[in-house]
């Protein structure tokens, strides 16, 4: 009974609330930098980083036409400034110029050449030479976007619900796995969320007090949103409708001041935030593939979910470390990354062989081998099995079975989304 009034007084102190918010934002930046350095390249980054580099060095927007250029420009400008050079990737850009219909696919090939072949000597402290160093360097400036998202959430909630509301919103954002996982990648999702939320905040403040500075912020934020994702056109339309409704309703009157967001629920909210924090700590740094306890055991997620977020390619550094610690001589990696298998393994120090862009090996595992299978491919394999079984029954044939995941369960999950199937014991039992 004594703690709650003290807690309320602490939240009521502008200085204490501001210091708390600054510390949380700083901690978020530190965590995101650690995620940046811990993850291997993910699927979309190959295209985005290469395209951004080509924009900066050639001055035209040809590759990866399905997304606006802002995020790619930031990443590309960073690695260009640090000395990344184009070599064998050049002809692929020329091909994309000649055949615009192939520009999307060419962006992946261009990115592969730039990252895995043209700059083997590029080194960034704390990363392996070549692709790992380039990807890490490209990611680092984009950490500003999850920090911006958290800052805007804090500012908007504080304006509406007081300092306590601001801190609550901040705590929710910085313990949200999608923000932590995707905020460290060269992708458009978190940047879009950050500038989109800033647009809504600016419009809300403009409606409330009519100051010109909010109109300027609205223009900048909405322009940024349109420069990150084409789908931001729907955000612009929604904001226009909201502005029209607000103009018709007239100015808001809030004589009572910001509402208390906690009410009697301080204890419950506190426990929930602690639960969030424990989950985040347990999943770190593989937040993008995080599934909460309701999803069941990590090795069985592929049976319930079918999306690239289960495994986007992020776990190869962890796989190399696991291989060294377990003294596994060779690993067969099954991945959907659009990179030549040998180059992919060499970039992250995994000893073995890799099959990429092909789900067929899932149906024919060999005894005596250790497999690291992308949960994304496992999910797609289950779906393919279901479809082929339906077709087989229609013509009176025996339906196929997905051997991995049915007769053999994964022994563990590495890197957030790589399912380990150790069949070495099965090989030793063979005559």
Give the SSE layout.
Elements: H1 3-12, H2 14-38, H3 43-58, H4 70-81, H5 90-98, H6 103-116, H7 131-139, H8 144-174, H9 177-182, H10 189-209, H11 212-226, H12 232-249, H13 266-283, H14 316-326, E1 331-335, H15 341-348, E2 352-356, E3 370-374, H16 375-394, E4 412-414, E5 418-422, H17 424-428
Parallel strand pairs: 1-2, 1-3
Antiparallel strand pairs: 3-5, 4-5
Compute the number of structural domains. 3
> So what's the overall shape?
globular
Q: Report low-confidence residues grouped into runs of 5 or more.
A: none
Helix content: 55-70%
Report the structural category. Answer: mainly alpha
How many distinct beta strands?
Answer: 5
Overall mean pLDDT score?
87
Q: Radius of gyration over alpha carbons?
A: 25 Å
- The ordered H/E elements are HHHHHHHHHHHHHHEHEEHEEH
Summarize the main sheet.
5 strands, mixed
Strand order of the largest sheet: 2-1-3-5-4
Structure commentary:
With 431 residues, the chain is mainly alpha-helical. The chain has 3 domains: 3-14 and 144-280, no CATH class; 39-119, no CATH class; 294-428, no CATH class. It has 17 helices and 5 strands. The protein has helices at residues 3-12, 14-38, 43-58, 70-81, 90-98, 103-116, 131-139, 144-174, 177-182, 189-209, 212-226, 232-249, 266-283, 316-326, 341-348, 375-394, 424-428; strands at residues 331-335, 352-356, 370-374, 412-414, 418-422. The chain has a 5-stranded mixed beta sheet. β4 and β5 (418-422) form a beta hairpin. The radius of gyration is 25 Å and the shape is globular.
């Amino acid at each position: 009974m004594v703690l709650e009034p003290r807690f309320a007084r602490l939240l009521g102190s502008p200085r204490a609330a501001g210091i708390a918010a600054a510390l949380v934002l700083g901690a978020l930046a530190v965590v995101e930098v650690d995620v940046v350095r811990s993850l291997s390249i993910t699927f979309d980054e190959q295209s985005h980083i290469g395209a951004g580099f080509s924009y900066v060095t050639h001055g035209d927007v040809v590759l990866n036409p399905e997304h606006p250029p802002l995020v790619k420009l930031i990443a590309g400008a960073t690695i260009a400034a640090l000395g990344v050079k184009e070599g064998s990737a050049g002809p692929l850009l020329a091909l994309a110029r000649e055949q615009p219909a192939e520009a999307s696919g060419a962006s992946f090939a261009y990115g592969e050449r730039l990252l895995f072949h043209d700059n083997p000597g590029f080194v960034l402290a704390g990363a392996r030479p070549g692709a790992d160093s380039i990807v890490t360097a490209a990611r680092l400036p984009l950490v500003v976007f999850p920090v911006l998202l958290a800052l805007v959430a804090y500012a908007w909630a504080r304006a509406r619900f007081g300092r306590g509301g601001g801190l609550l919103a901040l705590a929710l954002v910085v313990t949200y796995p999608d923000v932590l996982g995707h905020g460290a990648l060269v992708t458009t999702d978190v940047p879009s969320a950050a500038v989109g939320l800033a647009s809504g905040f600016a419009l809300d403040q403009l409606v409330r007090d009519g100051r010109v500075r909010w109109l300027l912020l609205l223009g900048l934020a909405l322009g940024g949103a349109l420069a990150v994702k084409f789908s931001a056109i729907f955000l612009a339309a929604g904001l226009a409708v909201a502005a029209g409704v607000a103009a018709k309703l007239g100015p808001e009157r809030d004589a009572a001041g910001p509402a208390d967001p906690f009410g009697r629920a301080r204890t419950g909210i506190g426990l929930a935030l602690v639960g969030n924090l424990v989950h985040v700590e347990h999943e770190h740094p593989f937040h993008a593939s995080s599934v909460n306890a309701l999803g069941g055991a990590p090795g069985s997620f592929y049976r319930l979910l079918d999306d690239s977020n289960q495994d986007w390619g992020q776990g190869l550094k962890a796989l190399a470390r696991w291989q060294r610690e377990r003294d596994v001589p060779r690993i067969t990696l099954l991945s959907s990354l659009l990179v030549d298998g040998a180059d992919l393994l060499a970039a992250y120090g995994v000893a073995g062989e890799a099959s990429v862009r092909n789900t067929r090996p899932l149906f024919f595992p060999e005894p005596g081998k250790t497999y690291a299978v992308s949960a994304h491919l496992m999910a797609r394999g289950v779906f393919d099995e279901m479809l082929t079984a339906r077709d087989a029954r229609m013509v009176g044939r025996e339906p196929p079975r997905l051997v991995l995941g049915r007769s053999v369960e994964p022994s563990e999950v590495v890197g957030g989304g790589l399912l380990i199937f150790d069949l070495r014991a099965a090989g030793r039992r063979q005559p």
